[in-house]
Amino acid sequence: MSVSAKENLIVGLGKLVWLSLPVLLCSFPAWSQQSMDQTAKSALVDSQGTQASAGELQNAEHQAGSISGKVVDQSGVSISGAVVRLRPEGQSPGLEVTTDDDGRFVFSNVAPGPFHLTISSPDLASQDFSGSLQSGDAYVTPLIMLAIPTQVTEVHVAGLTQEELADVQIEEQEKQRVLGVVPNFYVSYEPNAAPLTAKHKFGLAWKSASDPITLVGVGFLAGIDQAGDRWSAYGQGAQGYAKRYGATYANVFAATFIGGAVMPSVLKQDPRYFYKGTGSKRSRILYAVASSVKCKGDNGHWQPNYSNIIGSFAGAGLQALYLPENDRRGSGFVVSSALIRLGETSLAGVLQEFLFSKLTPNRPRRSASQH
After folding, report:
1. 225, 240 Cβ separation under 8 angstroms
2. Is it true that the peptide bond before 183 is cis, omega within 30 degrees of 0?
3. φ/ψ of residue 141, rounded to 5
4. Under a CB-based contact definition with an 8 Å cutoff, are residues 146 and 125 in contact?
5. What residues contact residue 343 under an 8 Å CB cut-off, 6+ apart?
6. Could you give the residue ranges of the DSSP H alpha helices within the chain?
7. Which phi and psi angles does 145 have, rounded to 5°?
8. Among candidates 228, 302, 246, 241, which has minimal Cα distance to 270?
9. Residue 119 contacts residue 48 (beta carbons within 8 Å)
C-alpha cells in the first residue's frame, strides 16, 4: 500500500471515531440509569426480605400456646367438675373451664406471658397457681391438689344477757380442778368475763366450801394440827380432832363467804383471780402478789380489794371468838392472822399464775386474740 493510501485509511478511521463519540455519549445515560435501576431493585428485594424476616420473628415471639393440668383431692382421686379460672396478667376477667372426668383441664390459644390460675371445687379449699407461658409453649402445671378446709368451730353468745353469760362462765369455772381433783373455782381464764351477781358470788362460795375435796382437805389439816398439838387446849383423841376440824372448817367457811361473797356483793367487787398469763415473769409476779389488795370491780375497772382486806380482818376476828384463849393474844392476834390471810392470797395468786394453770387440765384455753 502506498503512503498516500495509508494516510487516507488513518484519516478515515479517525473520522469514524469522532463520528461514533456522540452516539456513545448519548447511550451512556440510558445504560447508567439501567444499571442504577437494577441496583435499586436488588436493594428493594433485600429490604423486603429483611422486613419479612423481622415480621416472621415477631409473629414467632407472640405465637399462642396452651396451659393444661390435672386436679386431684387429698387421696389422689381425680376431681371432675372443678372450676379452673385463667387470668393472664393485665387482663380481666379471663377464661374459665371445668375439669373432665379424669380431672384434666386445658386452655388453648393463650397469649404468652405471666398468668394466674384459681382452682375451686365445692367443699374443698381453693388453690392458686401462677406461672409464665412462653411463645408457642404447651405449659403443663404440676399436679394440683385440693384439700378439705380446716374446720373452725365458733361459739357465739350474742343475744345472751350479762347474767346469762355469767351463768355459762361460772358453770365452766366450776369444772376447773387442779390435777383434775382439787377445786380451782375462784380463777377466771377469761380476761373480760361477765360480772357476777350476788347470786353467783354466794353460789360460788357454797360450791367451794361444800366440795367433798374441801371437806377432806380440812380433815387433813386438822390431823396435822393435832399431830403438832396446835391449839393444845382442845386436847387429843377423837374429841380434840373434832374440835380442830370444826375450828379449821370455820376458818375456811368464814374466809370463803365473807371475803368471797358477802363483801364482794356489798362493795360490788369480783372475788375471782383473773389469770394474766402474758408479759415478763417479773410483771406477772407483781400482778399476782398485788391480787390480795387489788381486784376488778363489777364495772370492769381495777380497784383496791376492800373485800379481801375486810374479809381477812373479819375472819380473824371471828376466829378469835372460838379458839382457845391461850392461843389468841387480843388485837395482835387479829392483825397477825389477817396479814397472814393476805399473804396467803398473794401466794395463791403466784401459784395460779405459774403452776395451777398448768395443772388444771379442764380449764378453758384462750385464743390468740385474747392473749
Report:
1. no
2. no
3. -75, 155
4. yes
5. 292
6. 3-61, 162-173, 198-209, 212-227, 237-257, 263-267, 281-289, 306-322, 330-351
7. -110, 130
8. 302
9. no
Domain boundaries, the chain: 65-146, 162-370
CA 77 from centroid of its chain's CA atoms: 31
C-alpha dihedral over 244, 249, 254, 259, to 10 degrees? 120
Max Cα–Cα distance, the chain, nearest Å: 188
CA angle 207–213–217, rounded 5-degree value: 115
Euclidean distance between CA atoms 25 and 22, whole angstroms: 5
Residue type, 273: Y
Distance set, CA 304 to CA 198, 292, 300, 301 (Å):
19, 9, 13, 10
What whole-number distance in Å separates Cα of residue 218 and Cα of residue 225?
Answer: 11
- In terms of phi and psi (left: phi > 0; alpha: psi -120 to 50; beta: otherwise), the region of 244 is alpha
Q: Which of 207, 144, 199 is nearest to 172 (CA)?
A: 207
| CATH fold for the domain made of 65-146 | Immunoglobulin-like (2.60.40)
Q: Measuring CA to CA, which residue among 337, 314, 302, 331 is closest to residue 261?
A: 314
What's 92's DSSP letter?
S
Could you give the C-alpha distances from 158 to 154, 164, 201, in angstroms and in order?
A: 12, 11, 24
Q: How many CB atoms lie within 10 A of CB 325?
A: 8
The label of the residue with cell 440509569 reads 33
In this structure, how many other beta carbons lie within 10 angstroms of the beta carbon of residue 119? 22
What pLDDT tens digit does each residue of the chain (371 aa) get? 544 444 444 445 444 444 444 444 444 344 344 444 554 545 444 545 545 455 554 555 578 899 999 999 877 889 999 999 998 776 656 789 999 999 999 999 888 989 989 999 988 888 899 888 898 899 999 999 898 765 444 445 456 788 899 999 999 899 999 998 999 999 999 888 999 999 999 999 999 999 999 999 999 999 999 999 888 888 999 999 999 999 999 989 998 999 999 999 999 999 999 999 889 999 999 999 999 999 999 999 999 999 999 999 998 888 888 888 777 666 688 888 889 999 999 999 999 999 998 898 877 655 433 43
Long-range contact pairs involving 330-337 (C-beta distance under 8 Å, separation at least 24): 337/312
